[in-house]
Amino acid sequence: MNSRDVGMGPTSSSTSPQAIPDVQSSVDNRHIAIQSVGIRSVKYPVLIELKGQKPMPSVAEFEMTVYLPPEQKGTHMSRFIALLEEMQGHALTIASFRAMLRDMLERLDAPSGRVQMKLPYFISKIAPVSGVSSLMDYEITLDGHAKKGSEEIWMTVVVPVTSLCPCSKKISEYGAHNQRSHVTANVRVDNDLDIGLLISSIEQQASCELFGLLKRPDEKYVTERAYDNPKFVEDLVRDVAIVLNKLPEVGAYTVEAENFESIHNHSAYAKIEKL
To answer: Tell me, which fold does domain 33-274 have in CATH?
Structure first.
């Protein structure tokens, strides 16, 4: 049991729960509010169910914080863990993530708070020629901000792709340099968002998408596909922004692209915001 809570577990026969002082609820005479207090770097198993995909087990890293008023000494840390414990066995959706934010504020008697969870997310992909199936992993973050009566949820997905340099292709007698790139889309989720559609829509804007497993005919295809579809980092963010503008579930967003350059000792980077 976390020592910074009260009445949450067994006590000895000589001490009743009422006799244990609730120190963190005592008055603090410094009268300084704390905007965020809570727990971070907490890993918990989750069963996540996003629109368009089957429920998938994963392990998420959580950060959970609330606002602490100036007159209160401390928050009840164990109540954050209790909330995560009660999630076990239930699929986490966008709707249940909103409910978790509301539940946290009620448990901590807080006017506002935030929950951020980051996890690897796997999608089965089919190779373009051989048809072999393999898993691709993507990093997903759900970031929820809540005040009593309202919640705002942002979803971030990091999509690895291939980009081939248009300049290198134009000036070279043969070949062109290409590299792996990360496209990071951070979108405000106004309605339930099809994560598979979001990821595939981003991948289609790259020189070529990536696959976990490729046979020789697949390698030929993706190499030639990238060569026929060169993209600057500027092209990547602009093309992804066009896609995001067409998705009714997406409100505000930022989209970033970073090319891990294969012939430079630096990355190329671009960012577009619609806030």
So the answer is: Urate Oxidase (3.10.270)
